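Example record for the data management plan.
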Amino acid sequence: MSTDCKYCGEHCLVCKCHLVPLNLDYEPPQYLFFMKWISVKEQLPEDDQTILVYNPRASLFQLGYYLKDEDSFYSIESYFAFPLHVTHWMPLPQPPKE
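Corresponding structural encoding:
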């Protein structure tokens, strides 16, 4: 039996589907698919796309963007444009539907 979740690809700890192993119709909440951090070593975001970034030097999450030409991340929350030390990022979820 595989230990990888068919929904999240993890060991069934992210989407909590391990809590209902006998329910074959279980569908985890959609927001969980957007809540996976992506290492900058594995993949970089699209150029000038607003994303959530993690800056371990400041121990904080913030909205930012990546500029491919400069190979740097920047905060959209700061008046000064200086590169951030980012190790992980994730796309923002889609806005709510009315």
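Summary line stored alongside the record: Strands lie at 38-39, 51-55, 60-67, 72-75, 88-91.
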